[in-house]
Amino acid sequence: MKRDHDASLPQAPDGAECILVLQGGGALGAYQAGVFESLSEVYHEPTWVAGISIGAINAALIAGNPAALRSARLREFWETLSSSGGPNGFAMGARESVNEFSAASVMLFGVPGFFSPRFPPAPFQPRGSLDAISYYDTAPLLQTLDRLVDFDLINSGAMRLSLGAVNVRTGNFKYFDSTKERIDARHVMASAALPPGFAPVEIDGEFYWDGGIVSNTPLQYVLDEAGKKRRIVFQVDLFAATGAMPTTMAEVTEREKDIRFSSRTRLNTTVELDRQVLAHAAQRLIAKLPPELRDDPDVLALSRVHSDSAVDVVHLIYRSKHYESQSKDYEFSRLSMREHWSAGYADMAQTLLDPRWTGHNPRASGVHVFDLTSANPVPV
Question: Three-state SS for 167?
Fold first, then answer.
């Protein structure tokens, strides 16, 4: 998966803030690991990593390790999860059946280092207990995080980490942010606690589920935070918003899941662009006002609308293989893990070498979105 260093590869622009945004998507998260490995060979370490669900786990593995160990820790994590994977050799026509068998095995036996079935099952657990409202026990994930993630490093401020979750009681979205509070394994597990598979996680008297229930990407949170320097946001999605018309009931289920968990990156960036246009207009208007009006409460409110420097959103989207089905996000075989990782690595390498990206003016104002691995690789 790893290529030799190429001196011709582009380097990160000086002074730019590099942000990695990771969507939820279960077993597909190996794609994000491949993206990061490729990115880390070209750019300096990200200044900020934000994630939801499996993206939160990958983000913690990145922020919770020194630069020299990050790819290795990601690989150790994903090899642990896929250690009980299915066979590596079979007729190509049987691949879909092999994947389905692997996914069924996960439902029955769980995933090493991640989760295991509850015994006795949830219906036989005491009413009102966390065991009664989830099918699987995530104690293995806690042990994995404690082994592979240095939370003291995360809380040192070396790299910002943001994790999205939803409050079970209020239904409100919540971001746990290392610049605002101390992060530990509970925050990572809360962001990845997708019901009804996993139980909510208690933090300071409140219970939290997987943030993907509300929004499967932290992109809006990142864009809402004021920034003074140019930002390069690498948005890594595991579900594609666009897709073909289903032809079978199985394809209906897969397509519904893709739509439900896709990130609507274009919508988020359009909103951000509109906000920047209004912010710049507000600043110009304030500058034209006479001094006696500049202390007016409405004027002061307008002055607080921030206008960021240029924002480049580099969008990478995992695109399913023809033999993958609606079970692709809980199919953890070693073969599929390696395919997902390699796809992420290749997509990132292709993007960073694409002339549409290398030729982009880094001083151009506004929001610019690049999706350079789709069927029509042009900026959107």
Answer: strand
By the 8 A CB rule, do 127 and 120 touch? no
Q: Which structure tokens are listed for 52?
A: 């939801």
Question: Strand, coil or helix: what is 378?
Answer: strand
Distances 262 to 133, 210, 256, 293 between C-alpha atoms, Å:
26, 15, 10, 45
What is the spatial distance between Cα 41 and Cα 142, in angstroms, rounded to a whole number?
A: 29
Backbone angles phi, psi at 350, to 5 degrees: -65, -40
Taking only the tens of pLDDT, the chain with its 380 residues reads: 444 444 444 455 556 889 999 999 999 999 999 999 999 988 877 999 999 999 999 999 999 999 999 999 999 999 999 987 555 555 555 888 888 889 999 999 999 999 999 999 999 999 999 999 999 999 999 999 999 999 999 999 999 999 999 999 999 999 999 999 999 999 999 999 999 999 999 999 999 999 999 988 898 899 888 777 888 999 999 998 888 999 999 889 999 988 888 866 667 667 776 777 787 788 888 888 888 888 888 888 887 776 666 788 899 999 988 889 899 999 999 999 999 999 999 999 999 999 998 888 776 667 788 888 865 444 43
Q: Is-contact 37 78, C-beta < 8 A?
A: no
Q: 378 vs 217, 289, 347, CA distance in Å?
A: 23, 42, 14
Longest dimension (CA), the chain: 79
- Structure token pair of residue 19: 């942000």
Backbone angles phi, psi at 129, to 5 degrees: -85, 160
Is residue 99 within 8 Å of residue 27, measured between CB atoms? Answer: no
**How far is residue 131 from each of residues 143, 170, 339, measured CA to CA in Å?**
18, 21, 34
